[in-house]
Amino acid sequence: MTTRTPVDAETTAAPAPQHLVLTLSCPDRPGIVHAVTGALARRGGNITESQQFGDAESGLFFMRVAVLTTVPRTEMQADLAELAGQYEMHWSLHEADRRLRTLIMVSTQAHCLSDLLFRATSQAMPIDVVGVVGNHETLRSVAEFYGVPFHHIPVTGDTKDAAEAELLGLVDSLGVELVVLARYMQILSPALCERLHGGVINIHHSFLPSFKGAKPYHQAHDRGVKLIGATAHYVTADLDEGPIIEQDVTRASHADSIPALQRKGQDVERRVLAQAVTWHAEHRILLNGRRTVVFS
User: CATH code at 76?
Assistant: First the structure.
C-alpha cells in the first residue's frame, strides 16, 4: 500500500492575481500599442482597461493600461524595461490597490482639508493621509478629529528655509508620495518645487489663468463675473502656472457679495481638488510639458 505525503496547500496554490497600472509616454510611432499589449499578454496579463492618446503637437504618445496578472511585479518590470529601451519610453508600473501616502498642507481654511480627510477615511479616495502640516495651529483639531497627526511648521521671511527643510524631513521620514496644498497660503521656493516636481497638487480659488494671485474673489466681484471657478494644478516654481489637472465653475449673480462668492467658490474648490487627487492617486495623469493628459 502506497502512502502519500500530504501536500501543503500554500505551496501548491496559484499566486493571487493582482491589478497593476502601467503608464507611459514616448515619441509616437506605429506599433506601440501592439508592443505593449503583446508584452503583457505573453506574461498572461488580462487587460481590463486601456486608454491612449497621440499628441500631434508634441509628437508624443501617452498610454495607461490596467492589467490583471499573477506574475510578480518585479518580473513584469524587467520585461517592460527592455521594451522601454526600444521605444524611448518614460514609464511606471504601479500596484492599483495600493493607497498613496499623502501629506496635506493647510493654513486656516478647513473646507478642503475636511473634505479630503472624510473621503480618505471613508475609503472614497485611494490615499492614506499620513500627516497634516499647518503654518498655523487653526486646523489642528480637524486633523486630530480624524486621527491624523498634525505638524505645526510656522513660516516667516526669516524662517522659510528652515521650515522647508523641516517639511522635507517629514516627507522623507513619512515616505510621502503626494503633497496636497489644501488652501495652503504660502509660496513654495523654487528649490522645493524642483525637489517635489510632479508630486505637489494645489487648489487655486479661481478659474486659471484668470484672477491669479491673492484675493481672486475680490477681483471677480470687481469685474462682475457670471461664473466663478477653481483650478487644481501641479505646483511649479512659476506661481499658479503649473500644469492644470481639473477645473470647474458655478454660476454667479450680480447680487452676490464677496462672502457669497467665497461660499460658492469653496464648494467648487473642494470638489475640484478631490477629483484631481483621486486621478493622481489612480495614476490617470501624465505630464505633457506645461499641460497634462488625464485618462479620466
Answer: 3.30.70.260
